User: Fold this.
Amino acid sequence: MNHGTPDSTRRFCRRTVRVRVDYCAEDGVHCEYATTLGADGLFVETEKPPPPDSRLEIRFRLADGLSLHQIAGRVVWIRGQERNGRERCPGMAVQFIDSKGCSALARDLERLDQNQDAFPR
Assistant:
């Protein structure tokens, strides 16, 4: 699914997930759910996203429950609840800006992908 960024510009594939995410923004700590995840970023469902370009500290566990990731990111774009009269999930796209964190996440995602059906389809 394309969320404003052409798929051809992504370095890593995105997975459909339901992962609880804690993130720290200027106005405090929040707990929401990510619905897509890749080694370079994620989409977080939230009704009150910070503005684009906001810096965040994001923390979450993968499906195995063992891998805790804490990665710095920035809000790339936000999505409202309605578009052309159609209801949709509001939220924000976050690009990870910590290369070390991205590498660790990529390794863990690859390991989980090798484990059949680590992520529900």
